[in-house]
Design goal:
single chain; mainly alpha; 58% helix; 242 residues
Length: 242
Amino acid sequence: MSKIGRNDPCPCGSGKKYKKCCLNKEKTTTSKEQVPLVNELYGNSLFSYHNQYVHTKKVKNEEINKKLLNIYDYGRKMSPKEVMDNYLEVMNSLLSYAKENNIKTIEELDKSEQISEFCSNVINDASDVAYNLTKDDYDLEKVINYIDRLINILDLDDNTYEWQIRTKAKILFTLNRITEGEKVLTEELEKNPKATYYYVELIDSFNDIGNKEKAKYYYDLALGYDDIEDRDVIEEREDYFI
């Protein structure tokens, strides 16, 4: 697999540059004999250390960790529903533990050693799966409820928080709850009017449903800021309007 440059589009399909997305997840790996979902993104060459680590690390919640390893080992053979069910079972267990023990950060949750993977990786991988679900794949209300719970219980870093908000908005658009999806993103833009990737989500979502007028509105609004970060990510969506 060719090396991914920091400024290249992230292979996960988020629309972000690699440096702004999966580079920050600090992913380790698993073996090519086993087939985790992230194998689709990064290839087999990276996985031997990660496989050894997650399968041998001592944990305090062996039952829930087995659910996680099940995804890593057999995820490609599982349906989207099965994968998401496993992720939500893992994450809801972690969030219950965090709430019961007054844990507020991902770092604290990692120190509790409930699972053998870094919690930030599980959170972001679960969102990667959720982002691409359809109404036929899954009960998307369950995912929305999980994201709300995650945000309410843990203090997330900026990148992780942004990805949860984008995922929630994408799901709302998928459910044809357009006004709600738009509101989720515009509320974040009220806090930070130059947040590039909330514009990306709005532009892409409205373009996907055929509302070119709204997509162009947010495209123009974003480019109205001369100093908006990663301006080229917005500009490359000019093709939507040709």
